[in-house]
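Why run this: before we spend reagent on co-expression, it is cheaper to look at a predicted model of the complex and decide which construct boundaries make sense. The entries below are exactly what would go into the expression plan.
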Amino acid sequence: MFEMMQRIRELSVQSLVYLAALLVSAIFIWILSDLVRGGIAHLSWEFLTESPRDAGRAGGIASILVSTILILLVALVTAIPLAWATAVLLAEFIPITSLFGKVVRFSLYVLAGVPSIVFGLFGNAFFSIYLGLGFSILSGGLTLACMLLPILTATAEAGLRAVPDNYRLSSAALGMTRTAALIHLIVPAAAPALVAGLLIGIGRALAETAALLFTSGYVDRMPGSLLDSGRALALHIFDLSMNVPGGDAPAFAAALILVSLLLCINILAMKLAYDLQRRKMMI
Amino acid sequence: MRNHGQISLIIAGLLWLLAGAVDAASQRLILTGSSTVAPLVGEMARRFESQFPGVRIDVQTGGSSRGINDVRKGIADIGMVSRQLKQNENDLYAFTIALDGISLIVHADSPIVSLSKTQIADMFTGQITHWSVVGGTDARITVVNKAEGRSTLELLLDYLELKNSEIKPHIIIGDNAQGIKTVAGNRNAIGYLSIGAAEYEVKRGAPIRLLALDGVQASVKNIHNGSFPLSRPLNLVTASEPQGLIRQFIAFAQSSQVHDLIKSQYFVPVDAD
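The model came back. Tokens follow.
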């Protein structure tokens, strides 16, 4: 009797876990199939190579893709060195109990909880108006960089902490300097975590609408420089579905492109991390 | 070798930035404001740029209030405002470039074709709860309201002389497309949206009907001749008497050269015939 009860309990827990996992992937597949159904008819080579016309109902998204990628690059180039350097400091150079580390960590937690529209208003006030960058890809990218800092730092710190202390002790025993151990051993060992954090950050940056509305702006022209205003892809999708009657089909198509872009970046980044780890550690 | 490549890439990037800074010195206009007007003005700007090479017009959004704010602060040259200016905004100069109207909509199967202002006000405040009171079937009315901050909501409240807190909605929606889907999927719903967008959706076969208001048919024609009561002007505003390029662009936006653009965004030109 007791055994019977136990087996039933075991089975039901197992099936609940499976059900939850199935539900998670079902949501993803549902969204994806919805996007494909709504957008596939509107997709064409011209959609990728032309600039939008007629408020986005005709033409393509070439200029918007370029702006999006430029904004993302500015954000990453600014945020990655700052975030990863901070993570190295927090994980490697100061004890976990130090007051300074606590202050830094606390400010990052607060930053992580700030809604993106607040970043947008801050970016508008600071980068666009105070620093005089105006509505530009540069101020949009820098605003995004502020948003990415907590994500990149927290994931990188956790990744570095997950590297076993044996590595540090053995490298010290071999007479390696701390820097050398960091570059050749610990960072490569933590690479998957760094890349995972990077991917979350890129995902958040590509999906960002509110923070970019007031910073990189709404102009859908092909950007001529980083000081031009350029509309991000997520903002374009938002605008098509909210403000443009008859903009549904191009909005679906643009969303499909956004998701595919995200998938491509994910695959590429995972491959890079794998290669780095193998080159550095498996020789 | 690899390092050389990287360095030259960085230098190229810096040069590009500088080139941009120089480029930015050419004639440039910045517009901010209403997200309803922005797609239209964006198209106007594109045509204006193609006629006057060397001019760059950047159109930004953020809502009518932002447009007014930015013009006052001098951040924007021209603001876009999708309503009449208020009493305390008399310091600004407004130029109407197009009109927009709002229509009450019901499902196409509904027998109702016209409602009066008081009937609508009673429905939206929950005093009339069944369609039978106004000559329909004995079904409960589903009131579809817009979310706070939408200028169509402001305009309707203004017309009905109500506050948003007095409205008892069953469904609150964001954009026009959502409004159409909600009403098309519910035979007992009543909602409202921009007439241009509604007429376009009816043409595309959406099962909705535009209601006449106090006997006046909700149509682009009646907005234009001024007989339809629920309409709003789409304005460009400036902080001072417009000069030079600003004046040129406003004149362009009010000219008949852009009427096709206004119509293709489902708005109504001011002096078209």
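The two ends of chain A are 57 Å apart (CA to CA). Chain A is about 75% helix and 0% strand. Bring this page to Monday's planning discussion.
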